[in-house]
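User: Hi! I have a protein structure encoded as tokens and I'd like to know what sequence might fold into it. I'm fairly new to this, so please keep things simple.
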């Protein structure tokens, strides 16, 4: 509702819905057609994407490419999770970190592109670092392995994202990484040499790790508080289970 209202569009204007989630209420059907129906849309294209904590950036890339290709005009992109359904409340390694949440954005055509090319990838050899093994078990995470991977492998990815958009790290005014934990966020800020003037998403402090919802929630908060402003260049970078990552440079709405 908030994303649609901010865009000035009505539900009838949306012709594609993309929902990033790794915690749908059921494996079949996907949740996106239900979301479209409950929002009163006129039968738009609808698909789910499961790239875990990188999901929102994957969904944003799919939406932007669909608009650029002419396959869609107005795309609603959602990141939504109920991680508490898959978290053991007695496991201190996960229960104190993960939370539930949802965030959304609307992608439309524009004379000047506002979403840069995506840079994405995966490392399936590390798939067991964050895993739910079957429908009868809870999430298991090797926090140290994830921390090592994120703090050593993702700074070069962030630089590649900027290069693909033709900008320098110094041009970035807003940095919104996936809200995995505060230590990873701060380590990435140091590794990239971001100045103190850069607005950094740290929504983890209040919302926890909400997987695919964390980037839209954190960016939304920065915009609401005025720390990020319309027209600022933002670097968004999702990463997590898979292991997967994806990110792009975008112009703040």
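Assistant: Happy to help. Inverse folding works backwards from shape to sequence: for each of the 253 positions I chose a residue that suits the local structure. Here it is:
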């Amino acid at each position: 509702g908030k994303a649609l209202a901010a865009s000035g569009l009505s539900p009838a204007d949306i012709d594609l819905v993309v929902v990033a989630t790794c915690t749908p209420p059921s494996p079949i059907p996907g949740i996106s057609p239900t979301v479209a129906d409950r929002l009163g849309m006129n039968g738009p294209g609808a698909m789910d994407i499961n790239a875990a904590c990188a999901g929102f950036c994957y969904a944003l890339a799919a939406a932007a490419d669909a608009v650029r290709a002419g396959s869609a005009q107005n795309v609603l992109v959602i990141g939504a999770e109920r991680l508490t359904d898959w978290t053991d409340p007695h496991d201190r390694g996960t229960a104190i970190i993960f939370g539930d949440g949802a965030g959304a954005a609307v992608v439309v055509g524009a004379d000047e592109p506002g979403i840069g090319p995506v840079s994405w990838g995966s490392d399936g050899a590390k798939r067991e670092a964050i895993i739910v093994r079957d429908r009868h078990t809870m999430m298991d995470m090797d926090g140290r392995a994830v921390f090592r991977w994120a703090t050593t492998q993702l700074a070069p990815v962030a630089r590649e994202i900027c290069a693909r958009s033709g900008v320098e790290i110094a041009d970035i005014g807003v940095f919104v990484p996936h809200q995995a934990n505060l230590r990873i966020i701060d380590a990435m800020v140091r590794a990239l040499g971001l100045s103190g003037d850069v607005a950094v998403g740290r929504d983890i402090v209040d919302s926890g790790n909400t997987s695919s919802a964390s980037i839209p929630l954190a960016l939304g908060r920065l915009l609401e508080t005025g720390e990020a402003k319309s027209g600022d260049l933002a670097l968004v970078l999702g990463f997590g289970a898979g292991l997967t990552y994806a990110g792009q440079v975008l112009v703040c709405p």
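A useful reference point when you look it over: The CA atoms of residues 55 and 212 lie 5 Å apart. Feel free to ask if any position seems puzzling.
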